Amino acid sequence: MNTWRIAAALTxxxxxxxATHYAKEVYVARRDTPAxxxxxxxxxxHGIALSDLSKNEKLLLIAVEDPAFYRHHGxxxxxxxxxxxxxxxxxxxxxxxxxxxxxxxxxxxQTLIARYALxxxxxxxxxxxxxxxxxxxxxxxxxxxxxxxTAASAYFNKPFKALSxxxxxxxxxxxxxxxxxxxxxPDHAQRMRRIDDYLTGKYQPTGVLDVEYDGNNQQSVGxxxxxxxxxxxx
Length: 234
Known about the structure:
The chain is built from nine helices and two strands.
């Protein structure tokens, strides 16, 4: 019995320590969010406004990248096809992890910041505009391509506002795997076809992780455990 009590006490102390650590992380993130967002605008510019998108383009971006974007609070672990990274969480990777994002424990910090710092403090429409201006869309000659304006020039040799809706979709299609889904490649063409089927209702995602629209919603034991934990803390 004494051993059980000691183990329970140690578990409680560890839980309190972890909770305190992440509470501090959220506090710091909330404090720093305005400055981090301001630095992002300063570094990448505000070349694209949400008003530069047609109604169809805006709907397409949200449907593919974050179907419940305007309904959730930074985190969505339930909507089929949403994946484990919302638009808000993707922005957290860019803004709060300057040294790079490593899978695993960092997912907890990313999720908490998205839920309790970035989403409450930055309006949804500004989040979308940030994505359009700072998203990573592959590289060219060893240089990262950031934002849809730069990507429009790199892949289509034209300014963003001159893109057709199909060309805009081509860039959106890249976001899930920008180093693999390069316009003009077979993988990208396949991704475009699958997005078309999804948008027209011919295909319905089979679960949260079916982001490729290929019926693959398999979750490892680790993923199931992590998703359960993230649901608990958000």
